[in-house]
Amino acid sequence: xxxxxxxxxxxxxxxxxxxSIWHLAQVREDAQLGKNCIVGRGAYIGTGVTMGDNCKVQxxxxxxxxxxxxxxxxxxxxxxLTNDTYPRAINADGTQKSAHDWEPVGVTIExxxxxxxxxxxxxxxxxxxxxxxxxxxxxxxxxxxxxxxxGVPARRIGWVSESGVPLIAGDADGMWVCPTSGARYIExxxxxxxxxx
Length: 197
Hints:
Helices cover 0% and strands 33% of the residues. The chain has 197 residues and is mainly beta. Strands 1-4-7-10-13-16-19-21-22 form a nine-stranded mixed β-sheet, with no helix packed on it.
């Protein structure tokens, strides 16, 4: 494990073997990072956030609690995972909000999914396994597995393979093929599944 001197890592955080925490990153108490994770310069990992193995959180990304990241999740530079459905600094009576005045909600990102630079995921949402969120997108609803979403608000514009490459139409309706690996995927009712051999 490598934690540089300028990083701020709580002694109550659990950091997996082989993980690296870079300059000016902050990992809060009770965060749990799996093995071989990378937290880039200036990134923030909130209290109690959980990350699987082999995750990458790039520079200046903000991962607010109670986010949950599966194995192999990629978080691009300056991505924001929010946690407050109705954000306010003060209550209706003018008093400053405290931790007791709101309930944090989280973003869940499943295995192998990737969130592009400066994208924002507005909690509560789930990003399905192997999905890709394009740079600058704003996600306000759940993203299905293998979906490629872009825009504000984010909408599905295609499908991607586990290699991260856009799929091309196959030789039958509802069939998609990865041009890199040749893996085949089947679309049924707006959902994609990988064909088992």
